[in-house]
Automatic annotation (TrEMBL):
Gene Ontology MF terms: heme binding
Protein name in UniProt: Phosphodiesterase
Superkingdom of origin: Bacteria
Organism: Arthrobacter crusticola
InterPro entries: Catalase_sf
Length: 234
């Protein structure tokens, strides 16, 4: 928390994930899974908004922890799904890992949701080279650089396809759907922020210990400095 407060002093508006790339796309759930969270187990698709960012905000040539925040419509409101670059093994999925190539990195929730059958982790992983929806022949590159300007250039005119999976904390990853994103041509709303505690996934709940861990850092992020009044988080 001390390091987080130091970043708050340096960047009062957005201490972590200071800059990002806005994305739009679709999330599709296959249906038929048995995660214990009905939303993950019921077929359907929905448009989404997303933001890719670098957690610490290190210079582009250096590796950084990658964050992908996805906003999902949920009735009259919305749900926020936050993913970060980790490993995928039973232990590695709980370790944040700085990356240079986003396409080779699993992105996981790291903290579990509460399902009917116990804790559930979620993950997204690039599925490889795919044609763009407009059949232009351009394919998703095998390498997606973690530098935000380079990421935008590399993904320009292409789709970024990902496979969505769920797992128990130590169990195998099981596919439940896909997420396909493209760079939003309108990058103007950089103030788009996300909060998975206030905006949980449909039909999923959060363990209180996990919510408390998030609330501590979010309280610092929301606290006004230098006449700031923005009460939103990442």
């Amino acid at each position: 928390m001390g390091a987080f407060r130091a970043l708050k002093v340096l960047r009062p508006s957005r201490p972590i994930h200071p800059r990002g790339v806005r994305l739009t796309g679709y999330l599709a759930v296959d249906g038929g899974a048995s995660s214990g969270i009905p939303w993950l187990d019921t077929a359907g698709s929905t448009p989404v908004e997303a933001r890719l960012s670098r957690s610490v905000g290190l210079p582009g040539p250096l590796p950084d922890i990658i964050g992908l925040a996805v906003r999902i419509p949920s009735g009259d409101a919305y749900a926020d799904l936050l993913l970060a670059s980790t490993g995928s093994s039973p232990l590695g999925r709980f370790v944040l890992i700085p990356r240079l190539n986003i396409a080779r990195s699993p992105l996981t929730t790291m903290m579990p949701y509460r399902g009917a059958q116990g804790p559930v982790l979620l993950a997204a992983r690039t599925t490889g080279q795919r044609p763009t929806p407009d059949h232009s022949g351009r394919r998703t590159p095998a390498r997606l650089p973690a530098s935000l300007p380079a990421f935008r250039r590399r993904l320009a005119g292409r789709a970024w396809p990902m496979e969505l999976s769920y797992a128990s904390p130590l169990g195998p990853w099981i596919r439940f759907g896909t997420l396909t994103l493209t760079v939003d041509p309108d990058q103007g709303q950089e103030d788009l922020r996300f909060d998975p505690v206030r905006n949980p996934l449909p039909t999923a709940s959060t363990y209180e210990w996990a919510a408390e861990l998030r609330r501590g850092s979010y309280a610092v992020a929301r606290s006004p400095r230098h006449n700031e009044t923005d009460e939103r988080t990442r």
